[in-house]
Amino acid sequence: MSRISVRGFAVASATAVTTVGAVVGVAAGGAPAADDNNFEAAAADTTLLADIPAGQQAQVQIASLTQQADAQASAADAVAKKSAEESARLQAAKDAKSKKAAAEAKAEAERLAEEKAEKEKKEKEEAAERASRSSVRDASSFSAQGSYSVAQVQAMARQMVPADQFQCFSNIVNHESTWNYRATNPSSGAYGLMQALPGHKMSSAGADWQTNPATQIKWGLSYMDGRYGSPCGAWSFWQANNWY
């Protein structure tokens, strides 16, 4: 039988050898086993597989191989654990990146949807305003009369002022002249439905500004739109200041 060193199998760990019954002691005929601290050195120098009784050799080999397998399994487990942890870390980072991208995409989609809705709303409002303005009559479309009742003047205004602005326009005229197109302020000289000051400013809308309420309404609309943006803008100012 070849003289194979026990170190080649299990002497690297004193525990493995002593587990099978203190093989060194058996080989020496019952002598005490070597101290754990000196076991490897002693085995390397004196203990050979051939020196171990034949009945114990298989046990030594099995113990050595078992310990090696256990060590390899432990190493493999450690590698597998580390690999699993790294995979989990990478997956978590990937998931976080995906969630962030999804959240950004959602926010962008919502922003675009809001912009689109706002744009459509604005376009509808502008279309409604254009439709409203296109439906109004111009001052020149009314036939001249010698005089006009309040009801007739109001009917003219309803046809000339955009529907969404009429109430504001009416509120101002009510306060300024109670729809009297010949109303005159004796102290200031303000004249007409809107109490233009001086009254002849309304000549920019027509030479018949003194007798034609349609011409006065035309001028009043132009004045309110130009100075306040609309009759409702003028009415808001009037409410705050009692003049416009």
Can you walk through the features of this model?
By secondary structure, the protein is an all-alpha fold. The protein has 8 helices and no strands. Helix 7 (213-228) crosses helix 8. The longest helix is centred in the middle third of the chain and has 81 residues, at 54-134. The radius of gyration is 54 Å and the shape is rod-shaped. Mean pLDDT is 80; it is low at 1-34.
Give the topology, please.
Layout: H1 14-19, H2 23-27, H3 39-46, H4 54-134, H5 150-160, H6 166-177, H7 213-228, H8 231-241
Helix pairs in contact: 5-7, 6-8, 7-8
Question: Tags for this entry?
Answer:
8 helices; mainly alpha
Summarize the structure.
This protein is mostly helical and 244 residues long.
Average pLDDT reading: 80
Measure the end-to-end span: 125 Å
Radius of gyration, taken over Cα atoms and rounded to an integer in Å: 54 Å
Tally the beta strands. Answer: 0
> What level of helicity do the residues show?
55-70%
Which series of helices and strands comes N to C? HHHHHHHH
Strand content: under 5%
What gross morphology would you assign? Answer: rod-shaped
Number of helices: 8
Structural class: mainly alpha
Q: Could you list the spans in which at least 5 consecutive residues all have pLDDT below 50?
A: 1-34
Largest sheet: none
